[in-house]
Fold:
Amino acid sequence: MSIQSPGLFIAFEGGDGAGKSTQAARLSDALESRGLSVLRTREPGGTPIGEKLRSLVLDHGHGTIDARTEALMFAAARAAHASQVIRPALAEGRVVITDRYIDSSVAYQGAGRGLGAEGVLTLNDWATEGLHPDLTVLLDVAPTDGRQRRTAGDAAEDRLESEPDTFHSAIRHAFLDLAAAAPAGYLVLPASADIETLAAQILERVESLLGDPVPGDRL
Ligand code: TYD
Structure:
């Protein structure tokens, strides 16, 4: 996101079972209780067409979905999300918290499916017209821990989650590489830390971004 835009754009990223949704909800509640207007959303999804694409790409039973088709489906859902939901909310000065964004495509389709980071980034820059988060919170999870957490209670794994640990390990390293390449835009935390500790660290970092300039005063 450009510094001229009002609002604050935060993305939560990490492997499956990292606890992103829990932390996104905690952050959203904390900011709302401080009087900020928050929009919580997720990818793939966030719009009617995005939710349809979500079931097409995640559910089993649609036959073979090759890597490029998969990358394009995530990018299509993201294009709608960025233009119909995220940009308008930022323009109103709101805080947007998304569960997954471009880094998920770079990690899952770029590294996991072997398409490479560069092509996937180019595709997504085009899809979003260059809309990037102000802060990405990366919850770093080891593949075996992630699998244990997401299958607790016998929850079924979706098409991506059911990939082997080697796939999830490639994804983990791709997320960490993205953070290492632009450390100022990331907060990297171990997903294994306790919920309260993580929530406090995330809120502290976000509050530092809200301090100066105040969202809404950046126009
Ligand atoms: P997620 O919403 O985190 O799953 P759930 O809430 O059902 O646990 O993400 C769905 C899956 O989609 C996840 O395995 C990661 C994958 N994914 C990609 O492969 N590329 C992407 O660009 C995105 C956004 C998600």
